[in-house]
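Blinded run. Sample ID left blank on purpose so nobody reads anything into the name before looking at the predicted structure. Input follows.
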Amino acid sequence: MDHVRTLDGLRFIAVALVLAAHIPMDGRHAWLVAINEGLPVHPAYIGVDIFFVLSGFLITRILLRDRGAPNAYRGFLARRALRIFPVYVLTLATLAPAVPLNELVRSATYTSNYLFAFDATPSPLRHTWSLCVEEHYYLLWPLVVLFTPHRVSRALCLATPLVAGAAMLAWRALEPEHADELIYRGSLCRSLSLGLGSLLAFYEPVARASRQRLLVLAGLCSASSAGFAWALGSISGVPDAMTRAYATALLSASILFTALACEGKGTITGALLTSAPLVALGRISYGIYLYHYPVFHLADRVTGSLDAVTPWMILWFDLFKCALTLAIAAASYRWVERPLLDLGRRWRTGTRPANAALAVGG
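Blinded prediction complete.
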């Protein structure tokens, strides 16, 4: 199974969107706030959704590779645990003195996505909701792919838009006050994006048979995204959160198709996504995502307590926050994550790695 280098660069683009959206979390960056509020979809939403589609694609292609291999499920979970848990637990332990116990417990048990859907209190752990969604996917989806007939798991991928839509409507009916947040953070709702990525993995040989086919698929997904948003937006009573979820999932799938089409083709986009800086930053994207929110949150608490802070001081401090996040993520990858990735190869049942650092969750 080939390693798709453009996806490393795409992973950094996704996490960069998240960072850019979270810089103005203290509300003092008027121009950034205006840009974020003026966009039809928040940049962080697009960034996380790209991660979900990527994760669905990469995880499913690994599972399809390992079908029928001895101890495939146990090996998959062992590799995921080594990739995700050590630095995650280290982060939680570091933040333990600064967060309420219930947030710490819910993050440690991967249920914080539902906690933060009901609680809007600022927290350095609010970003863990997406890691919860991915962890639920890592636990359940391998059981389907590895232990059910191929056609069953593929059919479930095809049914994902219906399952996700039913979950969104259920939240709208059961919890109307918090429905938008539950649609945004709920695991079944966000299975839409994970399912689209998984579906591509099933049809990867067909889709990647030619660059033109991938570009056509990218165009169809983009057109469907725009058409879906326009059509549902014009229908009274359809929740905006549902419109955003479907439109953004299709847009993220289009971005993935484009990245695959640019692999090894000498295009400008391919050259950018496979450039050494973006590939290197993409490999540490899990750490960037994991560490950026606590760094931003705690740093903004410091500057928020200062008097007479000028816009230039804020700008330089924001650059410092980003640089500090990158430095911590690079150190984490060098001395913690990479040695564990090497250890995880003992449980690899396939022949070649397939983008070892996967999406938000590693």
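Unblinding after everyone has recorded impressions. The chain is about 75% helix and 0% strand.
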